[in-house]
């Protein structure tokens, strides 16, 4: 492959689309200078731009090759890396895959390699944010449906969905992600993901208001004044999450 | 009294209880029912003191029949009294849980009338939650010392975790401050819970459908700084509790003077937060790092070093164990290096199969070189610019620096009064992720 990048790939933003880009890169023996989802990149640039059509068959060939050549752990790592907010994540993932095809299963143990390290750190951040949100998501009762909104940095919805589906399996609920403009909808025991620009919520019922007031009372009472520690609170619960949390939104 | 007011009073009375963890049990949700549990535990919020809020932590009642000197709910204290109705509390728990405010319920109580009656109230609440509402979330319940064995067993079958408070670190202190409690009355339910868990493990092997008894294990807590025990004594007690009673966790709570008593520290005494923090650090060393209490503190040093964390302190005083060559040292040795934690030790072992480790690589792995570099070599090379076999020099460089947090004034021994604990320590010692 020639090492001088001369081209930029655009694709439709799906994982299959990304895998098609990987296929293109290998079949054309070229490393792109960037891989961007079509609606996010500005079109004026020095390099030649190529729009890579999502090709199911090509994507499938790449997808199958990953666990075969570099193991299940690498496959999981890549799928998660795709959900992270790392700048240029597609390019870094391609780099990781090139290394993976070269060294095989060992790739996941190469913790001191900058390429592997980059992916690992990004995935760790995704995991950490997803874990925090398992706790920080706040539902409101709107009629019979529970509705929550989040604004994460990473695309955590696919990561946290199984947890909420298992926990609230008897309920109907929705979680809307304002960053990625995506909603998880769980109705009559069936989950689905939906793209949406924004959602409008009806005004809260008196019962909902009462419940929120009780929760605020609990929250305000449970802290021990003699041990007040703002820095510690913010370290564990960064302020950017506060605006969607019932007990804290009045402090934002 | 309305539920809101009860919630305020009974939360206020419960807030000094330390444990708020929801860990130790993995239970998937059941189709159509509410609730699940995650072994890692989930924090739902953090209070203004930085402690994690995972469970709805309340008392069943604060109308106590006892008169323990250190306790806010003691009979002789003039404070409003109230008791939840079991259904009221169960409904509150469900409405909080559905909105994802909490991971479950942490139920403790003052002794209303008799221990048995108190236990029955708690039992009714748990019964409504588990049997009637089919609630699958986490439940932590305090065993009430002196309650009937059958009631404790019944509670254990409905709860995920149980705890009995040790309260104070020695029998003498108990006699002085909690005359109605004895070491025996506290250890008896603890023993029963331990035996219940052991029997249950046996039953579960034989019958898969045997009901689970306290699957999340038991924990305890004690108050630090209200009585004169040394750190060494407390740590030994902790070690004994882990070994003899197979506890999952021991919690420490820095004593905050709230009531006046001639047997207690004066009202304006600051809570010994640094001491509490050091105890937690040492507790981690016991549970995850293969240290024994005798290694951390001994007769010559019965109390923690205020300017060094216990692991650094041990390393500085054992120059014969270092340096450790990261490319060859066994896992157990790596664990003892300051700046290398459980995770980074595991990652070192994994990464060195593929490549020779250097200092850049170690940094990527997550080793804190600021501390570790004085105790390790990479391929025979050291990154330390100072003499590492002199404890005094090392101590100077590793000591905690920075400014204390508000309200954070540890007592310092004279010869070390130049140093103050770090900001980082000030934050960490207040963390609620216990």
TrEMBL record, chain A:
Residues 87-247 form the DUF4130 domain. It holds the Pfam family DUF4130. NCBIfam families: SAM_7_link_chp (TIGR03915). This is TIGR03915 family putative DNA repair protein. The lineage of its organism: Bacteria, Bacillati, Bacillota, Clostridia, Eubacteriales.
TrEMBL record, chain B:
The keyword Transferase does not apply. Pfam families: Radical_SAM. The keyword Cell inner membrane does not apply. Coiled coil: none annotated. SUPFAM superfamilies: Radical SAM enzymes, RuvA domain 2-like. Keywords: Iron, Iron-sulfur, Metal-binding, S-adenosyl-L-methionine. Residues 59-195 form the Radical SAM core domain. InterPro entries: Aldolase_TIM, DNA_rSAM_put, Endo/Exo/Phosphatase_dom_1, rSAM, rSAM_sf, RuvA_2-like. CDD domains: Radical_SAM. PANTHER family: ENDONUCLEASE/EXONUCLEASE/PHOSPHATASE FAMILY DOMAIN-CONTAINING PROTEIN 1, TYPE II SECRETION SYSTEM PROTEIN K. NCBIfam families: rSAM_link_UDG (TIGR03916). This is DNA modification/repair radical SAM protein. The lineage of its organism: Bacteria, Bacillati, Bacillota, Clostridia, Eubacteriales.
């Amino acid at each position: 492959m020639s090492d001088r990048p001369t081209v930029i790939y655009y694709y439709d933003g799906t994982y299959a689309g990304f895998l098609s880009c990987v296929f293109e890169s290998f079949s054309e023996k070229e490393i792109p200078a960037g891989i961007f989802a079509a609606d996010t990149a500005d079109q004026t640039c020095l390099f030649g731009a190529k729009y890579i059509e999502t090709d199911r068959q090509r994507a499938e060939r790449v997808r199958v090759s990953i666990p075969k050549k570099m193991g299940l752990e690498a496959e999981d790592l890549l799928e998660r890396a795709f959900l992270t907010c790392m700048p240029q994540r597609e390019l870094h993932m391609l780099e990781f895959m090139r290394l993976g095809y070269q060294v095989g299963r060992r790739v996941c143990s190469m913790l001191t390699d900058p390429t592997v390290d980059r992916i690992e750190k990004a995935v760790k951040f995704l995991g950490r944010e997803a874990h925090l949100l398992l706790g920080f998501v706040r539902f409101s009762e709107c009629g019979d449906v529970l509705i929550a909104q989040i604004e994460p940095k990473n695309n955590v919805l696919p990561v946290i969905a199984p947890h909420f589906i298992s926990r609230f399996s008897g309920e109907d609920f929705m979680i809307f992600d304002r960053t990625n403009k995506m909603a998880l909808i769980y109705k009559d025991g069936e989950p689905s993901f939906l793209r949406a620009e924004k959602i409008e919520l009806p005004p809260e019922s008196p019962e909902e208001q009462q419940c929120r007031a009780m929760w605020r009372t609990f929250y305000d009472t449970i802290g021990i004044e003699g041990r007040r520690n703002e820095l510690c609170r913010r370290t564990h619960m960064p302020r950017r999450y506060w605006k969607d949390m019932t007990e804290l939104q009045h402090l934002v | 009294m309305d539920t809101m007011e009860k919630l305020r009073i009974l939360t206020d009375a419960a807030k000094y209880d330390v444990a708020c963890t929801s860990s130790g049990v993995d239970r998937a949700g059941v189709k159509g029912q509410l609730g699940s549990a995650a072994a890692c535990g989930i924090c739902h919020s953090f209070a203004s003191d930085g402690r994690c809020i995972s469970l709805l932590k309340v008392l069943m009642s604060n109308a106590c029949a006892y008169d323990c000197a250190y306790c806010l709910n003691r009979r002789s204290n003039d404070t409003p009294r109230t008791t939840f109705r079991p259904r009221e509390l169960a409904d509150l728990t469900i409405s909080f849980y559905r909105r994802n405010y909490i991971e479950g319920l942490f139920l403790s109580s003052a002794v209303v009338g008799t221990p048995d009656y108190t236990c029955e109230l708690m039992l009714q609440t748990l019964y409504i939650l588990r049997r009637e509402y089919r609630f699958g979330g986490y439940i932590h319940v305090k065993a009430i010392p002196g309650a009937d064995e059958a009631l404790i067993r019944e509670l254990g079958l409905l709860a995920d975790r149980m705890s009995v408070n040790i309260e104070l670190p020695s029998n003498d202190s108990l006699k002085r401050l909690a005359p109605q409690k004895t070491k025996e009355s506290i250890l008896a339910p603890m023993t029963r819970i331990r035996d219940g868990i052991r029997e249950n493990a046996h039953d579960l092997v034989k019958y898969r459908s045997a009901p689970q008894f306290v699957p999340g294990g038991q924990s305890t807590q004690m108050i630090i700084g209200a009585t004169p025990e040394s750190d060494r004594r407390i740590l030994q007690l902790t070690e004994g509790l882990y070994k003899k009673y197979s506890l999952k966790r021991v919690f420490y709570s820095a004593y905050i003077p709230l009531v006046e008593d001639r047997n207690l520290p004066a009202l304006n005494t600051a809570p010994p937060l640094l001491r509490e923090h050091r105890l937690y650090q040492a507790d981690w060393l016991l549970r995850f790092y293969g240290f024994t209490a005798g290694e951390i503190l001994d007769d010559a040093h019965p109390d923690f070093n205020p300017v060094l964390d216990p692991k650094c302190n041990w390393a500085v005083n054992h120059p014969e164990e270092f340096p450790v060559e990261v490319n060859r040292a066994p896992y157990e040795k790596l664990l003892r290096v300051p700046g290398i934690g459980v995770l980074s030790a595991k990652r070192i072992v994994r990464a060195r199969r593929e490549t020779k480790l250097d200092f850049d690589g170690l940094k990527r792995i997550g080793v804190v070189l600021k501390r570790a570099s004085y105790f390790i070599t990479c391929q025979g090379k050291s990154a330390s610019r100072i003499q590492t076999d002199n404890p005094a020099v090392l101590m100077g460089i590793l000591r905690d620096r920075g400014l204390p947090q508000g309200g954070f004034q540890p007592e310092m021994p004279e010869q070390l009064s130049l140093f103050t604990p770090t900001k980082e320590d000030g934050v960490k010692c207040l963390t609620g992720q216990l």
